[in-house]
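The records we work with from here on pair a chain with its fold. These numbers are not coordinates but entries in a learned vocabulary of local backbone shapes. To see the layout at work, look at the sequence and tokens printed below.

. . .
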Amino acid sequence: MAEPFSAIDPELYEPPFEQLRAQLIDAVRSGRAAAGEKLPTVRGLATELHLAANTVAKAYRALEEDGLIETRGRSGSFVAAQGDATQQRLQRAAHDYAQLAHELKVDAASALDYARAALGIRP
């Protein structure tokens, strides 16, 4: 996964935990962080961003309450499959489309060509 978190700006009015939360929301919506991808550990991210572990833990708790991430015990934290409502619908549609392509024995390159054409993306 492309790292969804960048440096925290201590000069901003927005508190550090909220900056982290906003960064991951943006990463999920932009596709830089996909459903099921593992997030850095709280301590690892705190060290990397020069923050207190409690700050990162607070951001992760808020993201979990928002339904954007899920914590799987000792396995760590992951981008939740559901994301926001728009992403949920698109993920389900993409999954259904991939399943249909598989059932029809359409190769991935052809399936992508059909999807691009449906979206109006020209080669």
Notes: Strands lie at 69-71, 77-79. Residues 82 and 88 are 5 Å apart (CA to CA). Residues 16-79 form a domain with the Arc Repressor Mutant, subunit A fold (CATH 1.10.10.10).
